[in-house]
Amino acid sequence: MEHTTTYRSPLGILTLASDGEALTGLWLEGQKYFGGPAAGTRTRRDDLPVFDAARDWLDRYFAGARPLPGELPLRPVGGEFRQRVWELLREIPYGQVTTYGALARAVAARMGRTSMSPQAVGGAVGRNPISIIIPCHRVVGSNGSLTGYAGGIDKKEQLLRHEGADLSRLFRPRAGTAL
Q1: What is the mean pLDDT of residues 103-127?
Q2: In this structure, are strands 98-99 and 23-28 parallel, antiparallel, or unpaired?
Q3: Is pTM, for the whole model, over 0.85?
Q4: Of 23, 107, 121, 136, which residue is the catalytic one?
């Protein structure tokens, strides 16, 4: 059985999901892939200790602290490839960005392969079920484009600004180019 609660953030209402022990989801309102595959089968429950821990983590994050993803029990649901990508996302330092290409090279190295498709990695990044805590907003295009955030480019930019990331070389993609 999965459970949900909500959290009021500077970005709007966040929906959190848990299997009762670990966090399995965190979505922004209106996010692409909102709720994941089990979206209709969860029950509202606000009193789980994992939700208390997640709310504390988010309070600290939005107050300017730098909590680490490893401080929370996380259990994102996905296949082996996606798990590898999400593991690498957790290693991107606060306030820093990496590219889909660099992430693809890192995934390939961990899998003992010579190369990996940045598009395949982008698909896994885009389906990250635990936004913000697993920081998929820290991945940008190789040309500096703020492309590819399921929560919306404006939210990605807000999160990076909040973290003090250097946005001077980053830009919003034009309409019709992977928004």
Answers
A1: 94
A2: unpaired
A3: yes
A4: 136
